[in-house]
Amino acid sequence: MAAPVLALNGVSKSFGAVAALRDVHLELRAGEAHGLVGENGAGKSTVVKVLAGVHPPDSGTVVLDGKPLALSGPADARAAGIAVIYQEPTLFPDLSIAENIFMGRQPMRSLRRIDTAQMRSRSAELFARLGVQLDPDRPARGLSIADQQLVEIAKAISLDARVLVMDEPTAALSGVEVERLFAVVRSLRDAGAAVLFISHRFDEVFALCQRITVMRDGHWVSTDPADRLTIADVVRRMVGREVSQLFPKEATRRGEPRLEVRGLTSRSFTDVSFTVHGGEIVALAGLVGAGRSEVSRAVFGVDRYDSGEVVVDGRKLPRGDAAAAIRAGLALVPEDRRQQGLIMELSVERNATLPRRWSLTRAGLLFGGAERRAADRWAQRLQVKAARLTDPVDTLSGGNQQKLVLAKWLATAPKVLIVDEPTRGIDIGTKAEVHRLLSRLAADGVAVLMVSSELPEVLGMADRVLVMHEGRLVADIPRDRADEESVMRAATGQAARS
Amino acid sequence: MTMVQTPPDAATTRGTRLARRAFVVRELGIAIALIVLVVVTFAVNPRFLSAQSIKDLLLGATILAILAIGQTVVVITRNVDLSVGSILGLAAFATGALFEASPGLPIPVMILVGLAFGAACGIVNGGLIAAARVPALVVTLGTLYVFRGLDYMWATGRQINAADMPAGFLKMGTATVAGVPVLTLFAVVVLVVVGYFLRNYRSGRELYAIGSDPAAARLSGIPTGRRVFAAFVVSGALAGLAGVLHAARFGTIDANVGLGDELNVVAAVVVGGVAIFGGSGSVYGAVLGAVLLTTIGAALPVLGINPFWQNAAVGALILAAIGLDRALSARVGRNLQERKAHV
Lengths: 498, 343
Known about the structure:
Largest sheet of chain B: 2 strands, antiparallel
Radius of gyration of chain A: 25 Å
Distance between the termini of chain B: 24 Å
CATH topology of chain B: ABC transporter involved in vitamin B12 uptake, BtuC
Structural class of chain A: alpha/beta
Strand order of the largest sheet of chain A: 6-7-8-3-9-10
Strand content of chain A: 15-25%
Low-confidence stretches of chain B: 1-12, 338-343
Number of strands of chain B: 2
Shape of chain B: globular
CATH class of chain B: Mainly Alpha
Strand order of the largest sheet of chain B: 1-2
Largest sheet of chain A: 6 strands, mixed
Distance between the termini of chain A: 36 Å
CATH architecture of the largest domain in chain A: 3-Layer(aba) Sandwich
Number of domains of chain A: 2
Low-confidence stretches of chain A: none
Oligomer: heterodimer
CATH topology of the largest domain in chain A: Rossmann fold
Number of helices of chain B: 13
Helix content of chain A: 25-40%
Strand content of chain B: under 5%
Largest interface: A-B, 37 and 38 residues
Structural class of chain B: mainly alpha
Mean pLDDT of chain B: 87
CATH class of the largest domain in chain A: Alpha Beta
Number of helices of chain A: 18
């Protein structure tokens, strides 16, 4: 086989305390499509960003044609012939599609002016090649996700790149569009380009790729020719780890139904129905973009939904009214704690008492003493490690921030607790504490709905696992029948199709 | 046109046409408002369109227009430059002081000095924004006071009078070519050059890209820091030029020149259809906005309306402009999304 065009040699990358990549090796060869698979958070997107020059590796090297390549930015990667399609489209909504495709490298005529006519005709050619009808002159604003993705693909193809990196390019595409994309990618590959293809859809990976690399927890696991692998092998390698005793699940008694969701439908999910009983931890699993967070936000009333209803303790909640949800006893610990869960500049105690400051007031005034005592009590129960409770929150570690968000909502004594990715980006020890806490709450009769991308956490904590795939609830698996394979199959749409 | 028959992707073309029209509609709306205002005022008092009052109107709009062009370049990148009034004041005073020191200085040299002086102030703004990673709003609010303070220290309560400046320079301030003031020609040249640049050059388009989505701009390999820096230098340089022209037009300069201009400029830009969150709008619209605001100021007394209403009128216009913008983008968005249903 030919020498690799582009390789990662022992690349490691950390963000703060979280190691995203550890000693990763990857070789992309000319004329070959290489599949990269792994669970959410396995480090696939970080690999993409390293190849794209967005993140410089902490250690290890990116090697192009046998020579080490120093990428100081996306422009360098592009100059080196690496084209990247990101998971999230990165278009300029105000500019025309043609401008989006050629931004920064527009064809030029005399006096270095942009040749608009040529830009337009070349865009049209690209779309003809992809077999799609898009008007190069219309602005990118308002394009559907699939169309945005097609523009990204056109952009990457227009580079005539030697290396084409695609991070889940098909997530939003229809079957026909995927086929057309694959035809184009195959022709590029046969013309000698190296392709890195990342997808959660195994059938696509096997249809397109000659070799498949599996990653797990930021580590390289294996690279094998595709014809020597089966989907079952790949799934096993993706999840293959012991479900440790990290998850101190207490046996609980299942109580009355507390949260009932019936036929919830919006733009990002369809006809979602489920019930969570008191004393029960129900996990909402699925791949990134399956609509889990959207469902939890709609249930809590932060986002509106088009139809369906949310019932708490037999009473229907008004649509899109978070304040009413809080009054009814709902609490949401959001996924992105920096942006949605905490006010980073305020002190620990201010944050901890924010959602129930009214109950701490006397004659409409909030006295520091009451606030401090309440914060103190919860900080101790959750073992939040802060030098002083008056310190701003951004001085705390990620794990302690997460505990603080929990404290903030637990102080409202919720009947239903929705946690979105409760342990993302926090260390193992703190994870166990968060799990212990969730377990204890369930034992106290709280209904817990846990959105999580971490399979071990889902399997270790949940009494039942609800699995979402592309906006629909596709499986409801009880604890004794839930394992990595059953959940992963449902999440990747295998269960729905078979 | 072809509204009767609807082939499968009619929504595409219709949405596209609407979107394309929206770009025009912005500028067209202001132009129409301007024409209506002029016609009504003319009907009430025909002397409103005498050669002299047209000249006054153009002269009045010139400096605001030049500032608005510079401001547009900055606003497109999702930034704002609040220090332009102070830069104008400093540059105007520098012009006077320099003529006092060496009265024989040729006018072109003076203009270059003004541009360079303003550009230096722009470098301070751009440098601070790049180095401190603080929003432009805060940085330029700071330099607004700093530059004004320097102006006061330099002037020490003094005033430079017409007698201190060369006659040729002052004559430029009032001279006309075919009825159009010379100063206005400066604004026209600046408008054409900047407008052409923003439309036809890579770095011009990159300014729009930065304002449209800064994160995507970085991923596309656009040197966002350098481009934003350049935008502030351009804005500063144009404020410097405006300062020189101000000196030529009025002949008297004290430390209060250009005080409060920054908000007029931002108003002109917003009324002119430049999105305050960047990414869209044109210098042509901004200049139309400047002309419209100036015309309102001149027309209200003619119409017998208390000039105290002027502020309210400007405010109402800003709100109307923003409302129109919202309505348009919502409508375009809906039309563009219709296509999804067909696929």
